[in-house]
Design goal:
7 helices, 2 domains, alpha+beta, 285 residues, three-stranded antiparallel sheet, 44% helix, five-stranded mixed sheet, Helix Hairpins, 8 strands, elongated
C-alpha cells in the first residue's frame, strides 16, 4: 500500500490509476518527461498486429509535449530484460547474494495467517459475551437500557473484527500465491539459471522501474534506451535497438513506432554485435 501511494502522479498532478493487469503496467517511465507508459495494440487481427508501450504525455497531450519519445514494442522490452538479467547473474555475485537474502526475507515476512487466527479467537469471545448478555437480559439480571447499550457496543466491535478478518484472509491467500512465486524464483536464482524467455514473475520480483528513452554515451537522445532499476539498487542500461523484433514488412527497417498510422519508424543500430545490445552498469554505493 505504501509503494502504491507514492510516485503515482502524472506531470499535470493528477493521480494515476494503479494497474497490474500487464507485467509492465505502472513500471515503465518515460526518460524524457517522466510520465508513465501505457499499453496500446496496433493493427489487431492482422499479421502486422503489434503491442507497443507509449508515453502517456505523448499520446494524451500531443507529441509536441514529449517529442523525443516513441512507441516501443513490448517484445523489445522483454528481450532487453533477458539480457539485463543475464548480466546481473553472470557479473554481479554480490548483488545476487543480496537479492537472494531479500527473497528469503520476503518468504518469512507474511504473518496474515497468525493475525487471522487471533481475530477469530477474539470474534468467538465477543460472540459468547453477546450470547451471555442476551441470557442475562432474558433472566432479568440487567435492565433494557444497559442491555441495549452493551449489546450495541459488542455488535459494532464484532462487525469491525469480522470485516478485518475477511480482509486478512484475502491478503493471506494472495501472500501464499506470492510466496510460491518467490520460492520458484529463488530456485532459479540459486541455480544461476539463464532465462530463455520472459517471465513476468521474475521481472516483477526484482525490477522496481524501467526508464524508457534517455541520453546515450555519445550525448544523443535515444528513445530505444532501456534502463532497468532493480530493487537492490543495481542499475543496468540496455540499447533496445539490438532487440528489434523480426520484421513482418520487408519495406520497413525498424520497430520503434511514432504513431498508430505508422507502426514503424526508421532507426538503425550501430552495434557491431547483432545479438547483444550495449549496456552500462551502475552498482549501489
Amino acid at each position: 500500500m505504501q509503494r502504491r501511494s507514492v510516485s503515482r502522479k502524472s506531470t499535470d498532478g493528477k493521480r494515476l490509476k494503479y494497474s497490474r493487469k500487464y507485467a509492465f503496467s505502472s513500471l515503465l517511465q518515460c526518460g524524457f518527461c517522466e510520465s508513465n507508459l501505457s499499453r496500446r495494440s496496433w493493427h489487431g487481427g492482422s499479421k502486422y498486429h503489434t503491442v507497443i508501450w507509449q508515453c502517456m504525455t505523448n499520446t494524451k497531450s500531443g507529441k509536441k509535449f514529449c517529442p523525443d519519445s516513441k512507441g516501443i514494442p513490448e517484445e523489445i522490452i522483454e528481450k532487453a530484460f533477458l539480457e539485463s538479467y543475464k548480466v546481473l547473474c553472470h557479473n554481479n555475485g554480490d548483488v545476487m547474494d543480496e537479492l537472494l537474502q531479500r527473497v528469503e526475507e520476503s518468504l518469512c515476512s507474511g504473518d496474515s495467517q497468525k493475525e487471522v487466527a487471533r481475530l477469530e479467537k477474539e470474534i468467538l469471545s465477543i460472540t459468547q459475551k453477546r450470547k451471555k448478555l442476551v441470557d442475562m437480559h432474558l433472566d432479568g439480571i440487567i435492565n433494557k437500557e444497559t442491555y441495549e447499550a452493551k449489546y450495541g457496543n459488542l455488535s459494532t466491535k464484532l462487525s469491525r473484527l469480522s470485516n478485518e478478518s475477511a480482509e486478512l484472509q484475502s491478503i493471506a491467500s494472495r501472500e501464499n500465491n506470492v510466496k510460491q512465486r518467490i520460492a520458484n524464483f529463488q530456485s532459479v536464482l540459486e541455480k544461476n539459471e539463464v532465462l530463455t524467455e520472459f517471465d513476468r514473475y521474475v521481472f516483477e520480483s526484482i525490477i522496481d522501474k524501467v526508464i524508457v528513452g534517455g541520453i546515450d554515451d555519445d550525448g544523443d537522445k535515444n528513445p530505444a534506451m532501456l534502463t532497468f532499476l532493480y530493487k537492490t539498487g543495481f542499475i543496468n542500461g540496455i540499447d533496445g535497438k539490438a532487440h528489434k523484433p523480426k520484421r513482418r514488412n520487408t519495406k520497413d527497417k525498424s520497430e520503434l513506432c511514432t504513431n498508430p498510422t505508422n507502426e514503424v519508424t526508421n532507426f538503425h543500430s550501430h552495434n557491431s554485435d547483432p545479438t547483444c545490445g550495449g549496456y552500462s552498469v551502475t552498482m549501489p554505493q
